[in-house]
Amino acid sequence: MLEVKKLVRPELLALEPYHVPSHSGVIKLDANENTYDFPQEVLEDVFRAVDGQTFGRYPDPSAEVLRTALAEYTGVAPDRIVVGNGSDELILTLMLAFAAGGKVVIATPTFGMYAIHATIAGAEVVALPRRAGFSVDPEAVLAAAGRPGVRLVVLCSPNNPTGNTISPDVTAQILDGTGAVVLLDEAYYEFCGETAVPLLARHPHLVILRTFSKAFGLAGLRVGYMLAGEEVTGMVRRIKQPFNLNAFSQLVAARLLTWRPVFERRIREICRSRDELLAAMRRIPGVTVFPSRANFILFRTLFPAQQVYEGLLVRGVLVRLLDGPDLPGCLRVSVGQPDENAAFLQALTEVVEKRG
Ligand SMILES: Cc1ncc(COP(=O)(O)O)c(C=O)c1O
Prior knowledge:
Elements: H1 10-13, E1 27-28, H2 40-50, H3 64-74, E2 81-85, H4 86-99, E3 103-108, H5 113-121, E4 124-129, H6 138-145, E5 150-156, H7 168-177, E6 181-185, E7 206-211, E8 223-228, H8 230-239, H9 247-256, H10 260-282, E9 287-289, E10 296-301, H11 305-314, E11 317-318, E12 320-321, E13 330-334, H12 338-354
Parallel strand pairs: 1-11, 3-4, 3-5, 5-6, 6-7
Antiparallel strand pairs: 2-8, 7-8, 9-10, 10-13, 12-13
Helix pairs in contact: 2-9, 3-9, 4-5, 6-7, 10-12
Bound molecules: pyridoxal-5'-phosphate.
Pyridoxal-5'-phosphate is lined by residues 32, 86-88, 111, 156, 160, 185, 187, 211, 213, 219, 224.
């Protein structure tokens, strides 16, 4: 009799299949996506670029065209860039390269996939709670990073789901004090404009992770990239899947980078909407709102979070329920288009007034 459970590492048995709630006809503000469609001219340009391409050959494993475009966008040389099938894939690859068999320090609460990928890679997670207000204490990070077996430190700025940033000075302090690889996830960089990229020149153990899923609205095509020193990118190239990013996604992502002014306008609109939404949520009695420099807002109310989540869903708005020991009573709403934000605000006001 085959007993699959006996054939896998025990820690894998504790993992759950990733679940995405599906509700048709709702306003979807649960995944920090960019809810704006591409403008028609961008779509037509992308379709023109794809027209006539055949996809019978394997994609370029080094994604040269996309990396060249990214080098121009980021100011980082192409050989210090590796692209991935979403930044999720690169998180797993980095865990496999640097953390397997060792320990990973993760500043929590944060994006859940770091701990999941660490566990899959066979690394031990050392959760390091952020301070009240969610700032990162560099001394505490360095103390944790100094523990035996720590090979990787994970930071996220702006942090999902708390929305606050880590200043480049703090990142530099951490880099100066540790020999572990420091992974700084800048998935939401475009919404705050603050980056640690200049630190790459001095710190070969810094890895910056970015994605096309948020500001560029390309979550469905799964394009992420990392910026790092040559030694780190060389190591990642050794172990990554050779054809990890498909030809279609490579082509579209490179094309989108030629439309940057369009996306920059959108990003400014989203940031303006975020600030308006923050201010409006703060005016609702009993709602606590945390400041955000990303395209989402963390909040809590006086009522049980599950009740608030369901109350919003009944009114046609899907948000993310985060209630748990790290973030008691908390939910996260992504910033959508003005009509979506208005519907969310109306629903939240009703839920709070009616207590669910
Ligand atoms: C902080 C952070 N990093 C990475 C990701 C994953 O991005 P991708 O779509 O590139 O896999 C997300 C998605 O929500 C995120 O919030």
